[in-house]
Description:
Blueprint: E1 4-12, H1 14-27, E2 33-38, H2 49-58, E3 63-65, E4 74-80, E5 91-96, E6 104-105, H3 108-114, E7 119-126, E8 136-143, H4 150-173, E9 190-191, H5 207-216, E10 224-228, E11 231-241, E12 254-258, E13 261-265, E14 270-278
Parallel strand pairs: 1-2, 1-4, 2-3, 4-5, 6-9
Antiparallel strand pairs: 5-7, 7-8, 10-11, 11-14, 12-13, 13-14
Helix pairs in contact: 1-2, 1-4, 3-5
Amino acid sequence: xxxxxxxxxxxxxxxxxxxxxxxxxxxxxxxxxxxxxxxxxxxxxxxxxxxxxxxxxxxxxxxxxxxxxxxxxxxxxxxxxxxxxxxxxxxxxxxxxxxxxxxxxxxxxxxxxxxxxxxxxxxxxxxxxxxxxxxxxxxxxxxxxxxxxxxxxxxxxxxxxxxxxxxxxxxxxxxxxxxxxxxxxxxxxxxxxxxxxxxxxxxxxxxxxxxxxxxxxxxxxxxxxxxxxxxxxxxxxxxxxxxxxxxxxxxxxxxxxxxxxxxxxxxxxxxxxxxxxxxxxxxxxxxxxxxxxxxx
Length: 296
């Protein structure tokens, strides 16, 4: 099959996908887009499915739900936040949420924030049969400071995505060669997939680590999980508090109540819980109804 050379196919999901599409339309003509394939994501509060769809309709771009997709007709395709393998002859360009070869795999941005990385970034690679090992086309990074919420980090990364796609797409539209370099395997690391068990707070960690954990799993994600006196809750925000000497340190126990907010003992340090909701009703569980409370 003859592939179209100066048009592009987009596989888009999430805020990053929306930002890329919006930036592309603003910089180039929608006529350079052949198709946009999209899918819903039940794991986030706003998956941007409807936003991407509306943007396509407004600009007369063919929008296809993933379940109705059949084939790629262009020489190049971009995959943004895409969760499935794409089996086609098109050259697939993936943009990954890390400075490859570090954090290959799943949830790289979340894991980078939990680990306290001073820099976050994105890497455009050619898709191949190996796990995020494709040759690097372009890489951009940004320095961050903590505390930082995942929502803001996603906004920063989304801007990088848009800049990278525009830079690469300009070469594709003008049919210029895309240069790429091999990844340095000596610097490779991997980021594991996360499931519901990975949302649970380990109160034996330091208050600093737990704070980063809470921020990295806040909106648009479900929120860090814990039990409060056997009630399942989601903790969405917190503030580190100066530590005190505790003779019988027991992580998870409430030590103080400050302004109606519980201050919880961590492995080291203290953490004031400022936003917490019932995991079922989604109603606030603060202020807590008894002083002798335990998070676990």
